[in-house]
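Hi R.,

Here's the chain you asked about this morning:
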Amino acid sequence: MTWTAPQITRNHEPYVGDERTMLAGWLDYHRQTLLLKCAGLTAEQLKTPSVEPSGLTLLGLVRHMAEVERWWFRIRAAGQQLDDIYNTEASPDGDLDDIADADAEADFATFAAEVEAARATAAGLSLEQTFAHRRDSGDVEMNVRWVYVHMIEEYARHNGHADLIRERIDGVTGD
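And the predicted structure, written out as C-alpha cells:
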C-alpha cells in the first residue's frame, strides 16, 4: 500500500488568551496548516517541485520546518547541543535539496517529534529568557518571545509557498 500524508484536523487559532496562549496557539495553527497542505498526497507528490527553476517541494518544507523547530527552540533558545537533522557541511540546505531519496513517512514522523520536543522545551522557558545569536551585525540578544514570533512568521511565509505547490500538484486550494 502506498503511504500518503495523513489527514489532520486543524484547530482554530486562539481568539482570547494571555501572551503565551496566543503565541503558542498561533504557532500550532500554522504548524497544522503546513500538514493540512500535505494531507492525502503520496510521497511522490510531496516530492514534486513547484515550478521550474525552483526545486521547492512540500516534503522539503516539512523537513525544513523540522530543522527550524529544532534550531530555534532547542539549540538556540534552550542551548541544547544537537546536530542538524538533514543539513550537513556538504549539503547545507539538505532539508530542502536532498529530496529524491527521502523517506516521506519517516520525515513526517521526524517533523512531529521535533514539534513535540520544541513544545516541551518552550514550555520550560520564560518568554523573557534571552540568548545570544550571531546576525550580520554581530551578536545580538534575543528572547524566547522573538523565537515564537519568528516561527509564526516563518510558517506563514512557507505556508504561502505550500498553497501554491499544492495547487500545482492537484488543484486543491484554500487555507
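Residues 144-170 form the longest helix (27 residues).

Let me know if you need anything else.
M.
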